[in-house]
Amino acid sequence: MGVTVKQVVDVMEGIAPSYLSEKWDNTGLLIGGMQDVVRKIMVCLDVTDSVVNEAIQNGVDMLISHHPIIFEALKNLRSDDGKGRLLHLIIKNNIAVYCAHTNLDKAPGGVDDVLAARLGLENIEPLTTEEDEKLYKIAVYIPKGHEDSVMNAMAEAGAGMVRNYSHCTFQTRGIGTFLPLEGTKPYIGQQGRIERVDEVRLETIARKRDLEDIVKAMLNVHPYEEVAYDIYPLANRIGKQGLGRIGTLRHETPFGEFAKQVCRTLGIPSVLVAGRIDRKVRVVASCAGSGASLISKAYAKGAHVFVTGEMKYHDACDVESMGMAAIVAGHYATEFLIVDELIRRLQKAFDDLQYEVEVLKALTMADPYTIIGE
Ligand SMILES: [Zn+2]
């Protein structure tokens, strides 16, 4: 049977909401159409030649990657240059490509959480939290007897979600008044007479991205010709979501011992280290991939050591002058852990929804760097 790309995208939205993407990023469905049919998905970090060929050999309909295959604006789509040839190959084989990048980095259970957990951190919190989505309160006035149908329609469109609770509303009874003027067709009462009606004021919460759908769903089932409702912006935030993580090790650990622990836990032969490596560490900040922009944040939050995938020479100098230490473990090594985790979560979500979709891991995925020593 299979499902549509749209149904897969909806599941991915639950794992890595697109509103978490950085403004400079290019996430979401990059190739293919929402109504394409999907039976087999392959998850990878990068859409490379080898991954695409593996996907073709395995009859894959959709690739889900961490890094966006299209990032800079394309000026042409030629089949005789590297990137263009790969895009042609993907399109000719009817493979859809979806990307979850910085949104998957930040999301709870995403790339940065998986890395922090693997490093053995406890009391994990995001290093940055400025990207929370805006919340709104909607209050709607409903004639008594219709409050359940309006509540259900709004909840189905996403209203009233508070963590793992859905249908969260507060309802108060009161009297609504109105005077139907000429040209109206009132659901209750008649033209020219002031009406007093038993009404329920239903209040609920909505995320910015759902607001339009919720209002549409509410207006659809509300019996009144003219519906009275209010929308208020809120200062509440859904939760802490952001780039990078900070946490503590269970025990204070000599730096050298911690660095070796990072090698073991990420399955790599060595790491680069910089800064103050002569002391014990307990507070650890981390950011998968290229996390150097968070060095100052890590320092401000009291990190003894910052673990990331890659940084420049001058970043290492900054770490040194701050009196902090850094461990540079490689872009691939700090991110590949998410692939297995994403496959596990997708397969579970599809099984729960009874979607007949198989999720494969791209086995040809590999770190483009290797180390040669003498
Ligand atoms: Zn990356």
How does CATH name the architecture of the largest domain? 3-Layer(aba) Sandwich
Poorly predicted residue ranges: none
Could you tell me the radius of gyration in angstroms? 26 Å
Q: Under the CATH scheme, which class of the largest domain?
A: Alpha Beta
Structural class assignment: alpha/beta
Strand content: 25-35%
Order of helices and strands: EHEEEHEHEHHEEHEEHEEHEEHEHEHHE
Span of the ends, CA to CA: 55 Å
* Largest sheet: number of strands, sense, barrel closure: 6 strands, mixed
Bound molecules: zinc ion
Q: Could you give the count of β-strands?
A: 17
Structure notes:
The protein has 374 residues and is α/β, with parallel strands linked by helices. It has three domains: 3-103 and 336-361, NIF3 (NGG1p interacting factor 3)-like (Udp-n-acetylmuramoylalanyl-d-glutamate--2,6- Diaminopimelate Ligase, Chain: A, domain 1, 3-Layer(aba) Sandwich); 111-130 and 242-334, 3-Layer(aba) Sandwich (Udp-n-acetylmuramoylalanyl-d-glutamate--2,6- Diaminopimelate Ligase, Chain: A, domain 1); 135-233, Alpha-Beta Plaits, CATH 3.30.70.120. The protein has twelve helices and 17 strands. It has helices spanning 5-15, 49-57, 82-92, 102-106, 111-118, 147-156, 211-221, 255-266, 295-300, 313-322, 331-335, 337-353, and strands spanning 3-4, 28-31, 37-38, 40-44, 62-65, 96-99, 122-126, 135-143, 169-178, 195-207, 229-233, 245-254, 272-275, 280-290, 305-310, 325-328, 358-361. A six-stranded mixed β-sheet has the order 7-12-14-15-16-13, sandwiched between helices. Strands 2-6-5-4-17 form a five-stranded mixed β-sheet, with helices on both faces. Helix 10 links the parallel strand 15 and strand 16 (325-328). Helix 6 runs antiparallel to helix 7. It is globular, with a radius of gyration of 26 Å. The model has no long low-confidence stretch (mean pLDDT 93). The structure holds zinc ion.
